[in-house]
Amino acid sequence: MPYLRDFFTAFGEKFIEKIKPGDIGGEILKAIVPSTVFTIQIGAATIRITDATVVSWGVLAFILALAWWMGRKPERIPAKNRQVIAESLINLLMNLCQSSGMSYKQAEKVTPFVGSIAVFITLTNVTSFLQIPPPAKNPAFPVALALFTILYVVFTSIRMVGLKGFWRSLTYPKPLLLPFKVLDYFIKPISLSLRLFGNVFGAFVLMEFISIVIPAILPGVIGLWFDLADGILQGVIFSYLTVIYIGEVLEGAHLSAAESDEIPDKALSSAQKPI
Amino acid sequence: MDKGLIALSAALSIGLAALGAAISIGIATAKAVDATARQPEVSGRIQTVLLTAIVFIEATAIYALVVSLLLIFAF
C-alpha cells in the first residue's frame, strides 16, 4: 500500500517540522551538568556552590520546620493529627527495625538516623516534581550519603555487639568467607549510591526528554510515577537497606555465638532470637 | 570513536540487562504469589523478602543504566 506509506512519511516529516525538536542531546546535556549558583571566596580557594547544594539546604530548612511543627507541644494521649502522624511513622520504622532482628532499645538508637535519611532522600527526590532539579542527579550527593551510611552501619553494629561480635559476624558460617565479607563492605556503598544515582538520573533525563518533545500534559502524568512514586520508593529502599545491613551483622553475631554456646556480653540485651 | 557504535552498545547494554531483570522479577513475584496463596498468614514476611529480592535484582538493571548513560555522555 504505497499510498499509506507516503501518507505516514509526509505526516511524520510535517510532525517533526512542527514540534521542532532541535538539538535534543545538547539540551539534555545542558540540563544534566550541575549549574553553579554562586561561588564563595575563602583566601585563594574558590568554592562552587551548585544547585544540588542549594536545593538540599532548602529541603533541610523544610525538614526542620516540619519537625518543629510536628513535635510541638506533645501530649500523652495524642489528639492532634500531626502528632498521630509523626508517632505512627516512627512506630512503622521501629517495627521494621525490630523485625530485622534488633531489640527495642537498639531500634530506639537506630531510628533517628534512619528516619532522617529516609525523609531527606524522599523529599530531595520529590523536588523534581516541582521542576527543581533533584540533588541526587549529581553523583556526589548519593556517594556522600552512601559513604556516611556505611560508616554509620559499621560503627553502630560495633557499638551494639562489640568488636568481638563484629568479628564473629565477619567469620560467621566459615572463616574462609572473611575476604568476601570484608569486600562486601566496599561493595555495599557502591551499590547504595549507584542505585540512588541511577534511578534519579535516569528519571531526570527521561523527564527532560519528554518535556522537550511533548511539553503539554504528558510530563505531568508520567512525572507522577518517575518523580513522585520512584523518588519515595528510593528513599524507603535506602533506609530499609540500612536497617537490613545492621540486622545482618546482629544476626551473624548471634548465630555464631549460639553455635559456640556462649552469649556475647553486649548482645545479651538483644535477646530476640534470629530466624 | 564511531557514534553509531556507541549508541548501539548503550542500547544493547540496557536492553539485555532489562531483559534479565524483568525475567527474574517475574519469577520472584510468581513464587511470592504462590507462597502467599499457600500460607496467607505469613504474607507480611513474604512481602518483605520479595521487596528485598526485587531491590537487589533491580540493582543489576540500574548498573547497566549507569553504564549506558556513561557510554552516551562520557564518550
Please give the share of residues in helix of chain A. Answer: over 70%
H-E string of chain B: HH
Overall shape of chain B: it is: elongated
Report the structural category of chain B: mainly alpha
Question: Gyration radius of chain A, to the nearest Å?
Answer: 24 Å
Number of strands of chain A: 2
Query: Main interface pair?
Result: A-B, 16 and 12 residues
Count of β-strands of chain B: 0
Number of domains of chain A: 1
List the helices and strands of chain A in order: HHEEHHHHHH
Shape of chain A: globular
Multimeric organization = heterodimer
- Unreliably modeled segments of chain B: none
Could you give the distance between the termini of chain A? 66 Å
Q: Quick one: CATH superfamily of chain B?
A: F1F0 ATP synthase subunit C
SSE-based structural type of chain A: mainly alpha
What is the rounded Rg of chain B?
17 Å
Report what the structure shows.
The complex is a heterodimer of chains A (275) and B (75). Chain A has 275 residues and is mainly α. Helices cover 72% and strands 5% of the residues of chain A. In chain A, strands 1-2 form a two-stranded antiparallel sheet. In chain A, α6 packs parallel to α8. Chain A is globular, with a radius of gyration of 24 Å. The relative contact order of chain A is 0.13. Chain B is mainly α. Chain B has one domain: F1FO ATP Synthase (Up-down Bundle), CATH 1.20.20. In chain B, 91% of the residues lie in helices and 0% in strands. The longest helix of chain B has 36 residues. The model of chain B has no long low-confidence stretch (mean pLDDT 88). Classes of the chains: A mainly alpha (275), B mainly alpha (75). Chains A and B meet through α7 and α8 of A and α2 of B.
Any descriptors?
heterodimer; A: 275 residues; mainly alpha; two-stranded antiparallel ribbon; 8 helices; 5% strand; globular; B: 75 residues; F1FO ATP Synthase; 91% helix; elongated
